[in-house]
Design a protein that fits this description.
Layout (H helix, E strand, L loop, with lengths): L9 E6 L4 E8 L3 E9 L1 H4 L7 H23 L8 E7 L3 H18 L3 E5 H8 L12 E6 L4 E8 L2 E7 L5 H12 L5 H9 L24 H12 L15 H27 L3 E5 L6 H13 L3 E4 L2 H4 L4 H12 L15
Parallel strand pairs: 1-4, 4-5, 6-9, 9-10
Antiparallel strand pairs: 1-2, 2-3, 6-7, 7-8
Helix pairs in contact: 2-3, 4-11, 5-6, 5-7, 5-8, 6-8, 7-8, 8-9
The structure holds 5'-O-[(R)-(carboxyoxy)(hydroxy)phosphoryl]adenosine and zinc ion.
Length: 345
């Protein structure tokens, strides 16, 4: 590491694992000097989901401009950076490789450490990165995104063991697929949340998955199928029209309630089992107001502290990557230029 600075504090983060190209400069793991996120969502909407080949091409077009913008916004020159951190797992392999190539090039040219970061660990780090108090560990962490739904035993930034995970759809995927059934816009999470605001959460009792005594796993494909049957009939396909009299707002609110209830129950059960005083929530679905409210209420009643990031740090971003990268660097856990993209965790 180069000499002359007071500490290894100024990290450039790069994120390109799915459909957001992002770069950010963070000082000392907490202070976000810039956070640039360009979303490809408008280009994928017409397909109802992320198309990997399109995602790679758009990352390639965006990456250099996004990095330059992050440095300019932070008022930082490349030469001032102490390290570059990059998401290298999990995600779409071609998409990961774009960010990884940019990060390796900067690391080599500037002679600064390269730090490979796990996207899921970064989502949980985001829940606490703005905080300055004592580190909130041990904690139970819930990651809920478009590709992942899992609960973890967290012992420090990036130090976690999985306790349970979804056995089929991720929670965000269930929101996206259910929105498609209802004819609501992609991405489905925000669309369902908006429709649910004028619906009744107790209008329809959709199933809550229970995978046996003590299980901390999740399943969301059943509730999605229950919505399909309720709205279109048992033998109808996904593209069939809605049955007459279906109230989209009531279905959206009742579906949201079923998913949120399971997420909250499992997380509180995990915290109880581990006797963890802290709960961390991260990932795109953590933007959902109903989930935030119900988990807050549940944590309060159980005497536990909930740590929540603002919505801009819940969806994919590079500040969480730079932030976690700082702790890795401090611990001496740097990567070699041979660091590979690992699509599945
Ligand atoms: O973490 P993220 O940005 O990307 C992945 O790593 O997957 O999460 C995206 C997911 C999408 O499935 C989207 O529908 C969901 O997060 N999402 C929401 C909300 N905002 C985004 N789900 C429920 N309620 C929301 N308000
Ligand atoms: Zn994510």
């Amino acid at each position: 590491m180069r000499r002359g600075r007071t500490g290894p504090g100024l990290i450039l983060g790069i994120e390109s694992s799915c459909d957001e190209t992002a770069a950010s400069v963070v000082r000392d793991g907490h202070e976000i000097l810039s956070s640039i996120v360009t979303s490809q969502v408008d280009r994928h909407r017409v397909f109802g989901g992320v198309v990997p080949e399109i995602a790679c091409r758009l990352h390639t077009e965006a990456i250099l401009g996004v990095i330059d913008a992050a440095l300019a916004d932070a008022g930082v020159r490349r030469e001032d950076l102490d390290a570059v951190a990059v998401t290298h797992t999990p995600g779409l392999v071609g998409a990961l490789l774009v960010g990884l190539s940019a990060a390796k090039t900067l690391s080599y040219l500037l002679d600064i450490p390269l730090i490979g970061v796990d996207h899921i660990q970064a989502h949980l780090y985001a829940a606490t990165m703005a905080e300055r108090g004592a580190p909130p560990y041990p904690a139970v962490g819930l990651v809920v995104s478009g590709g992942h739904t899992a609960v973890y035993d967290c012992r420090g930034p990036g130090r976690m063991t999985r306790l349970g995970k979804t056995i089929d759809d991720a929670a965000g995927e269930a929101f996206d697929k259910t929105a498609a059934i209802l004819g609501l816009e992609y991405p489905g999470g925000p669309s369902i949340e908006k429709a649910a605001r004028s619906g009744r959460a107790d209008a329809i009792r959709f199933p809550r998955s229970d995978l046996g005594p003590g299980s901390l796993d999740f399943s969301f494909s059943g509730v999605k199928t229950a919505v399909l049957y309720h709205c279109k009939g048992r033998n109808a396909g996904r593209s069939a029209p809605l049955k007459e009299g279906i109230c989209i707002q009531d279905v959206a609110a009742s579906f949201q309630e079923a998913v949120v209830e399971v997420l909250v129950d499992r997380t509180l059960a995990a915290a109880e089992r581990l006797r963890a005083n802290h709960i961390l929530l991260g990932g795109g679905v953590a933007c959902n107001t109903r989930l935030r409210e119900r988990l807050r209420l549940g944590a309060d009643l159980a005497g536990r502290v909930l740590h929540l990031a603002p919505p801009s740090l819940c969806t994919d971003n590079a500040a969480m990557v730079a932030g976690l990268g700082y702790h890795r660097l401090k611990a001496g856990r740097v990567s070699s230029l041979r660091l590979d993209a690992v699509p599945t965790p």
